[in-house]
Amino acid sequence: MTPRMETNYIVIHCSATRADQGVTTEDIRHWHTVDNGWSDIGYHWIIERDGAIKHGRHSQAQGAHVRGHNHESVGVCMIGGIDENGDPEDNFTSEQWLMLEMLIETLELRYPEAEVVGHYFFTPYKTCPNFIVEDWRESIR
Q1: Catalytic: 69?
Q2: 73: region left, alpha or beta (phi > 0 left; psi from -120 to 50 alpha)
Q3: Which of 4, 37, 43, 118 is exposed most, by the fewest CB atoms within 10 A?
């Protein structure tokens, strides 16, 4: 395990899967380890469709979720995020929104200097997590 030495960002992602796909944390772990050859799932936490928060990589390990910034960030992935045609869609469940809020509040206590951002913050041509994190943050304050 390569330890993460600093945590400047909490990065929110989506799995870019349809709401009806039935994707789980273990599916993503399989995609990342077997299909990509990574040592583990790239995210630190995953929020499944029913709101269950699942552990991914060890919380102090360097992730594999945002190129060039894994050494300074933790990754949270919400399962869902695209429609039947593969286009971006905010299709997350009310349980996921509640648990995202709780998880982010907890992570902010743990990493008070970290900025909460969407994956698109580092990769402007992406829309991941397929909602505007800044607008979401404003709506829960």
Answers
A1: no
A2: beta
A3: 37
